[in-house]
Specification:
Shape of chain A: elongated
Distance between the termini of chain A: 49 Å
Helix content of chain B: 25-40%
Radius of gyration of chain A: 18 Å
CATH architecture of the largest domain in chain A: Orthogonal Bundle
Number of strands of chain A: 1
Strand content of chain A: under 5%
Order of helices and strands of chain A: HHHHEHHHH
Number of helices of chain B: 11
Largest sheet of chain B: 13 strands, mixed
Oligomer: heterodimer
Largest sheet of chain A: none
CATH architecture of the largest domain in chain B: Sandwich
CATH topology of the largest domain in chain B: Jelly Rolls
Structural class of chain B: alpha+beta
Number of domains of chain B: 4
CATH class of the largest domain in chain B: Mainly Beta
Order of helices and strands of chain B: HHHHEHHEEEEHEEEEEEEEEHEHEHEHEE
Shape of chain B: globular
Amino acid sequence: MDTSGLQNSCDNTFYESLFRTLAPTIRNFLIYKYRDAERAADMVQEAFLTLWKNCEKVMPDMAKAYLYRVAQNQMLKLVDKDKVKQKHIQFISKTTHNEDPQFQMEFSEFDVQIQNAINGLSEGQREVFLLNRIEKKTYSEIAEMLEVSVKAVEKRMHKALVKIREIHKNI
Amino acid sequence: MADKINDSEDFLARWLSGELSPEEQREFESSEEGIAFSKIVESTDKLAMPQYDVETELAKLKDRRSQEAPTETKVIRLGGFFKYAAAAVVVIGISLIYYLTLPNYTVYETLAGQIETITLPDQSIVTLNANSKLRFDPDEFGENRHLLLTGEAFFEVTKGINFEVETDQGTVKVLGTSFNVWNRNNLLDVVCYTGKVNVSEQEFSQDLIPGDGVRIDNGSFKRSWKKQLNDGKPVWITSGVTELENVTLKEALNELSNVFGIDIKSTPEIDIIPFTGNFPNDDVIAAIKLVLRADNIEYQYDSTNQKLVLSGIKGQ
């Protein structure tokens, strides 16, 4: 959408198109980072409500970064850090048959071990790794979302893989 | 092959994004490590997340958004954090939700050519140079003075508890002192002006006293030097001059862009030419000449559109 005429984020069409394009990824990102699938969808709602409340102060091209920042801050305030350590991402497999969404690939023992290893990564490594592998985001897109450098993203990707291999070897 | 992986910080990242040369890739993927990592990646390619119905969520959002009046008896469920027995509780609940969801980071950001002076909650003063960003959590600042910086800033720190500035190339820790931090393009330059400063990144750690400078390049120590300090502050503040030492033209051009907000097109051969020199921050023509003349670079500067195009090196 052409946002050149907009002064801020209060335009309803803009706000709704923002939700449609960004909400799915932000929700997944929150699960990757905080491993709390139950709260993730609500946190996305909260972030967008906060944006709406402050829409006058947020320029259209800053909205994405604003949403990511707000979502993380909110999650931090509401999630008990100790409880988060016990959280676990339950992955599902991609559906291979478009005609039958019920049909899912089964996970092998190896797959399950790798998923456990992913759950064992640090927050920073895991969020970058899954944004790249599952959301198919490039390193520069991830850098922009997380407000870090591309180099920092690459380092975390590298460390994530090294760590998965280490954890997996020890099982 | 295992060494290549252990000694590198980004080899596997570059492998995954297809940045390795065809030979490097072939060599890696036929090695024992490469086969193991390929299996891991294959496994992750099967992963997906549970369904998220955007339209349903959007409808829910629009409902909640339209609930302005506090006397609404409609109930808001928030994953069960807030009980919702009486309307009065709902009123408090709604305003609490909005209060709790305000972002808590304080962020200062400058644009090209902009310099900002900031007073932190502890009365420390930060002068933030162009195209830079400083961020900290005001709730935590009383217990731990931890800030995140990209770009350049001069810090004058009051005595007190732990004060540290984190960049993605390294962390600077201080105690009642003043120092300059320059972090651009995977480089970190720190110069201590008064007091004592420690710069660290992974296993590297060095203390700086006034006049000491240190550079970290891509995560490792590059060089240290002694600087003549004429004023108590760096020249980009006192004289409006940008000073660059032992950088490449890429960094110099980047600084031109930060100060003047101009768009610059360069070439790979020009980017790697080493540069040491200064330029004034108030005269773009003079600044461009100072950066480019020494190396006989051919260029065109369009001052109406603020575009600088470098075409090549004279005589080549």
